[in-house]
């Protein structure tokens, strides 16, 4: 299957609505060249633009939902539309990922479980999600994660237990920790014998330069494709069936101990 990671530039001088429309146009441009399109984390506001979370928060089926659902339908692609600052009328804000089918229907919503900030920023401004989310495509099963989640391997092992074969990471990762970004993406791929598609942002928002360097990693931990630092659409063709082949040739997951069950087939 073919995937396009849209490493959109996020800068303070572009309004969220302008970027929303631009991102939708970039999704439509993938029609015929991708089966799956992935956007980064909090690309409407910027992942470090904490002061904008409350002012730009929207309901689940708000402006971003409407624009991205239409873009997915127009392009005929599965779309991980990145994340939004979601305003729950009955609770706190959440950092919520939206996944749409090629018909423009909501296939899944994932509220980020691990919030970054060490008792400030996102960690205090947003609530924590509680549910692991997978999405079954014709070619593979997606496991949906967001940015700081990448540092918590138990989350990914839980997704594998639920059948995940392709792990998506939508991020607003800072440039100063770019080495960790690549290293952790490869580690999650190797230990789970899964593809990792990790999409970050370019640009600088709230004074924080972004890492860029979106990356696709195969189940052996090899980098299949990697973007540069600037805005870019990284398109790659990968063999989703290679996950089962890798797990069959080197069946490490079945040797798990500590009372944990091997992953479902």
From TrEMBL:
InterPro entries: C-N_Hydrolase, C-N_Hydrolase_sf, UPF0012_CS. It comes from Streptomyces aureus. The keyword Hydrolase applies. The keyword NADP does not apply. GO terms for molecular function: hydrolase activity. SUPFAM superfamilies: Carbon-nitrogen hydrolase (SSF56317). Transmembrane segments: none annotated. Keywords: Hydrolase. This is Carbon-nitrogen family hydrolase. Belongs to the carbon-nitrogen hydrolase superfamily. NIT1/NIT2 family.
């Amino acid at each position: 299957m073919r995937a396009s990671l849209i490493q959109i530039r996020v800068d303070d001088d572009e309004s969220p609505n302008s970027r929303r429309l631009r991102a939708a146009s970039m999704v439509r441009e993938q029609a015929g060249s991708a089966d799956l399109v992935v956007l980064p984390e909090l690309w409407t506001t910027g992942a470090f633009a904490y002061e904008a979370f409350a002012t730009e928060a929207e309901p689940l089926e708000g402006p971003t939902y409407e624009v991205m659902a239409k873009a997915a339908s127009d392009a005929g692609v599965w779309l991980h539309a990145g994340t939004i600052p979601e305003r729950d009328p009955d609770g706190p804000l959440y950092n919520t990922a939206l996944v749409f089918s090629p018909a423009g229907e909501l296939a899944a919503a994932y509220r980020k479980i691990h919030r970054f900030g060490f008792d400030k920023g996102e960690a205090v401004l947003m609530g924590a999600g509680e549910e692991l989310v997978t999405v079954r495509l014709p070619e593979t099963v997606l496991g949906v994660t967001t940015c700081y989640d990448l540092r918590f391997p138990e989350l990914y092992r839980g997704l594998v237990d639920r059948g995940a074969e392709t792990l998506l990471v939508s991020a607003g990762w800072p440039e100063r920790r770019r080495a960790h970004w690549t290293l952790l993406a490869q580690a999650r791929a190797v230990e789970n014998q899964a593809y990792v598609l990790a999409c970050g942002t370019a640009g600088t928002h709230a004074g924080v330069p972004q890492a860029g360097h979106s990356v696709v990693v195969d189940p052996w931990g090899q980098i299949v494709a990697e973007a540069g630092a600037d805005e870019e659409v990284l398109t790659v063709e990968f063999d989703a069936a290679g996950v089962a082949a890798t797990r069959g040739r080197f069946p490490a997951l079945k040797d798990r101990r500590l009372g944990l069950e091997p992953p479902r087939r």
